[in-house]
Inverse folding.
């Protein structure tokens, strides 16, 4: 299983959000680090097929034979948690998950079972029948994580997933994605270094739309946080 | 569909049934003016994802945004068809209105409102577009009265009514196509 990004570029009038990014991504946890405006979200949206790359290709090899999978097969393999996601105010947590399961094409019986499992995993079983508008930020984020993994995705894209989580939830979440990363390509973006250094098998660092580091945490000879801050020094001082 | 929508629908049906029992010809204008307001419900449901920020999540689901939009439009189209049919039956009972009268008083204003509402939704992104849709519906509600004045100075021929309805229906289909096409611009490129 492989996700191949080849010279992926996204250009907006007057700015290049993502500039010719190439990478072969395999199962494991890939931490996408970068400051705000580095192009992480744009890259993730392109991987999810929400926005079209200006140039370059993104291809998914599910097994050795299939390089160009169908759109439906690709989407079927995808789980996504956007940075900011909305919800229908009249939905309860359970109804939201059932709705997302329907959109993901999961049959009702499986969806019900999966929803109950995931509500338990993200500790929302007691609040499952409460309306989402009454949820705290952390609860909404956990619900978002649950919907992302409903279909047992092969490619899991998480944009700033730990935002709004308390330290305890953060640790639980790290364990969850480490587990998911055994069988799936998990890409999660953050600007919190400690989130990445604990779970990521591979770190991709972005700055101004380009990759400035791609490798393992151990490849960096200094402390990851110092390396990260040094890489973004110019930006931070602006 | 939420409880509010069901209640609104129930109130509307009750009003129609009451109108059917009154045998008051003035009710024709009231019913005709209310029909365009019913465009609000389909439009609210159609632009629901955008209004509540669910578009990004839905766009990344198994079914493409294009597919979701087509299915929604199909369901809402059936809703509209049933509504127009019910109003037509009520008009027939209440005022022995002919098919052409029904078309002129109800179908045409409804389609004008639906077209305007689609245009507003496609061009004006954001939660506030509902106010634009509301303005279009109010305009649609006034159309039967304008038609009444026209009728006083001379009844339009069936050909004119049919031509106007066909034109607005064509514009409506074009708008639906553009709305779906807009989602294609966001869609996945597996080239």
């Amino acid at each position: 299983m492989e996700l191949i990004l080849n010279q992926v570029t996204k250009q907006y009038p007057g700015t290049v959000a993502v500039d010719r990014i190439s990478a072969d991504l395999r199962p494991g946890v890939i931490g996408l680090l970068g400051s705000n405006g580095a192009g992480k979200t744009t890259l993730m949206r392109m991987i999810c097929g929400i926005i079209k790359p200006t140039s370059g290709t993104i291809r998914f090899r599910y097994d050795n034979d299939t390089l160009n999978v169908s759109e439906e097969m690709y989407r079927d393999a995808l789980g996504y948690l956007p940075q900011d996601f909305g919800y229908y105010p009249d939905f309860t947590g359970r109804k939201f998950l059932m709705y997302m399961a329907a959109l993901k094409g999961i049959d009702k019986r499986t969806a019900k079972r999966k929803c109950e499992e995931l509500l338990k995993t993200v500790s929302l079983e007691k609040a499952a029948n409460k309306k989402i508008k009454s949820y705290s930020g952390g609860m909404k984020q956990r619900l978002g994580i649950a919907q992302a993994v409903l279909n047992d995705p092969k490619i899991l894209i998480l944009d700033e997933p730990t935002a709004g989580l308390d330290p305890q939830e953060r640790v639980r979440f790290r364990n969850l994605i480490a587990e998911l990363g055994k069988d799936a390509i998990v890409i999660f973006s953050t600007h919190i270094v400690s989130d990445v250094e604990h779970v990521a098998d591979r770190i991709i660092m972005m700055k101004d739309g380009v990759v400035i580091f791609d490798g393992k945490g151990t490849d960096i000879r200094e402390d990851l946080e110092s390396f990260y801050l040094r890489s973004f020094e110019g930006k931070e001082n602006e | 569909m939420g409880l509010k929508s069901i209640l609104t629908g129930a109130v509307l049906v009750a009003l129609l049934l009451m109108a059917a029992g009154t045998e008051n010809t003035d009710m024709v204008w009231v019913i005709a003016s209310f029909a365009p307001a019913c465009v609000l419900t389909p439009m609210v449901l159609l632009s629901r994802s955008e209004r509540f920020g669910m578009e990004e999540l839905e766009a990344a689901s198994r079914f493409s945004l294009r597919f979701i939009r087509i299915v929604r439009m199909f369901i809402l189209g059936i809703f509209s068809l049933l509504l127009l049919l019910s109003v037509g039956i009520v008009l027939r009972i209440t005022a022995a209105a002919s098919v052409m009268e029904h078309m002129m008083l109800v179908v045409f204003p409804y389609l004008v409102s639906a077209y305007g509402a689609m245009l507003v939704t496609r061009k004006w992104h954001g939660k506030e577009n509902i106010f634009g849709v509301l303005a279009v519906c109010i305009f649609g509600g006034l159309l039967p009265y304008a038609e009444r004045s026209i009728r006083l100075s001379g009844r339009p021929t069936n050909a004119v009514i049919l031509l106007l309805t066909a034109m607005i229906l064509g514009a409506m289909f074009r708008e639906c196509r553009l709305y779906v096409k807009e989602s294609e611009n966001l869609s996945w490129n597996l080239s």
